[in-house]
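[SOLVED] Need 3D model of a two-part complex

Original post:
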Amino acid sequence: MINWLIKVLPNVVSMGWSGDYGWWAAIYQTLYMTFFSAIIGGAIGLVFAIILVISDDDGILPNGKIFWLADKIVSIFRAIPFIILLFVISPFTQVLIGTTLGATAALVPLSLSVAPFYARQIQVVLKSVDTGKIEAAQALGANNWDILVIYMRESFPEIIRVSTVTLISLVGLTAMAGAIGSGGLGNTVVTFGQQSKYDVVWIGTIALLILIFAIQGIGDWLAKRINHADMQ
Amino acid sequence: MSDSIIELKNISVHFQNGSESIDAVKNINLAIEKGEIFGIVGYSGAGKSSLVRLINLLHHPSSGDMMIGQTKTVKNGNVLIKGKELRNLRQKIGMIFQHFNLLDQSTVLGNVLFALKHSKMSKEKRLEKAKKLVEEVGLFDRIDNHPSQLSGGQKQRVAIARALANDPEILISDEATSALDPKTTKQILELLADLNKRTGLTIVLITHEMQVVKNIANRVAVMRDGEIIEKNSTYSIFADPQKPLTKEFIESASGNQEALEKILRQPEIARLQKNEFLIQLGFSGSSTDEPLISSLAKNYGVSANILYGNVETIENIPIGTLIVVLSGTATKLKQALDEIKKQNVKLEIIKEGK
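Solution:
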């Protein structure tokens, strides 16, 4: 068995499971980058989305200036290609993390790249909450906090759905973060691909696909399970 | 001091939509009495929705004064209450909507409990009250269902339970039956009328269907282009409408117009003979008791062929319509018509035979 594996997938086997450059390290770095940048970038994106929705003309606290500012920040960060953002913000990363290399340093550009993407998705989701529900809540004497809760709860299945989409695109971004030595499955595939070691490319790609399908599957299942509204 | 619970004085609502300036509500004066069911009728875009949203200040007026109960809420177009005070006022004004506006991700119980979120009652008391409200609207077996599992009528019942959670003195119904079928509409209106009777709840009901106000309203206002063009007791509006738009609404509710159109298409009416008249008679109140038709035959020898008849009871007063063909000699016919005019009956000569 082992001999057969060595014959068919020589470079996959020689990478080894453990060790700094083994498969487990690559998988761990991908999961690490995806998870933490999702939390940090997701939180920033969510805050911006809420600001955009409530300060909009038809929001509960309309404020043209705040909306304009938040909208421009999101648009600008959304417009910068990730591979460029990696280098543009590297001085900032240096100050924040103390280095510009490695998986932890990659969290900064990953978070800043995923935040505006997520903000726009959540903004669309929150805006799709029927204004009638908001009006009914106001008529019942609800305060602004109650209304924010309604926005979130009524769109929760949709929030799960767009979070899944965001998470999947984030896995894609972690592959590019290899350019700053972040490690991870994507980086492994690119590095070995450049050396024409295609067995690693295939196995690395399969591992990434498994991760993406798992995220998609769990997201779809969860969104369906918690939704009580009529399916559109 | 009047018993008004809602008092609007010279109220206007003005929107600026880009370069377009819209007067949604124009200089309205309206006093709604405590405990009455007040209907506001008009086509969409007449300003009904804007008008009722002033009551709970979901919309702000541009000018005028408003009193809700003993609270002055608007003076010279300035809203006097805000923040917690405004939210407390809103809790005393329930509102139901055409599309129910329930929280889809919450259960029936959850929807009602949401309304009690700011109540001073303990958690147990709130739960008890929410359950009682759900029971009152006849949905106790559906208490753990989500809105998507309910029919339109059931959804509106949940919305009513939710609107009543804080024991409001006023209930605003914004086209609440417009998305429901006739049978369910009737049930919901009966529920509202019953609430009004039992608890003295003041109901402001806006609709584009005269049928709805006919069944339950005590008074009716007809709105067009942001103005109230006619306002009277429901009975007077139906018995003696003044404005063409009011007549149009009433005809749409009674089916008289439809009947007349069918009659006019009949060949014998199309070829009405000499000394034959097609007339429409409108009876109301005590005039419905007089045996008019038989007296025409007895006293004038004029025969009356009844083609259509309809009696409706509004606020316990009957209102009737008859469409008949009168025939007799020319002189007798003239005398008969004069006699009808003398009675308390509205006469309309639709067609004269040649």
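Edit: Chain B touches chain A at residues 56, 58, 87-91, 93-95, 97, 99, 101-106, 114-115, 117-118, 146-148, 159, 162-163, 165-166, 172 (CB under 8 Å).
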